[in-house]
Amino acid sequence: MSTTPEGPFLYDDEPTSPHTAAPRNRNGLLLGIMLATVVVGVAMVLLMPLVKGSPEERSNASVTVFYASLADGDLATATQLLCTAERDRLGDEDPAGDYAREGVPEITGSRETEVDGDTVRQVTVRWDDDSTATITVVAEDGPRICGIEG
Predict the structure, then answer these.
(1) 148: how many CB neighbours lie within 10 A of its CB?
(2) Phi, then psi, of 123 in degrees rounded to 5
């Protein structure tokens, strides 16, 4: 028996191995792919505030949407913007009873502070009669309103 395959072949000579060259080293390509992945990941983390906004912008927007939804009578949206503790405390009550005043609220400032070991934002709101209130905003699956003082 012969070890040579019997023909007809596509070409005139016998079939040869397609892997005739010396193997190439691909370590540079693999390192380049891993380095590019790390660079893209770090860039995404650093650019996150540009996409989502700073914590101050996010907390101010949360308070603005909260009061706009109360003014429109959209209690579902207003309730979703409350933290879990406030939702549990209020139950089925309308949050406007605790949070709303006469007139249109205007955000005058915001600062970061620590309460019970947690970092929170306190947003200052001024009303038409020049009275002010401080809204506490916590990071709980996004900025959530979690109390009012004043």
Answers:
(1) 17
(2) -105, 125
Q: 77 CB contacts (<8 Å, ≥6 apart)?
A: 65, 69
Q: Mention every residue, 6+ apart, whose C-beta is less than 8 A from residue 9.
A: 15
Distance, in Å, from the CA atom of 81 to the CA atom of 77, rounded to the nearest integer, reads 6
User: Which domains does the chain possess?
Assistant: 55-149 (3.10.450)
| DSSP per residue, the chain | --SSPP---SSSS----S--SPPPP-HHHHHHHHHHHHHHHHHHHHHHHHHH--HHHHHHHHHHHHHHHHHHT-HHHHHHTB-HHHHHHHTTS-THHHH--SS--EEEEEEEEEETTEEEEEEEEE-TTS-EEEEEEEESSSEEEEEEE-
The pLDDT confidence band at residue 15, using thresholds 50, 70 and 90, is low
- Residue-wise pLDDT for 70-103, tens only, equals 888 888 888 888 888 888 888 877 887 788 888 7
Amino acid occupying residue 16: T
Q: Which residue has the higher pLDDT, 134 or 24?
A: 134
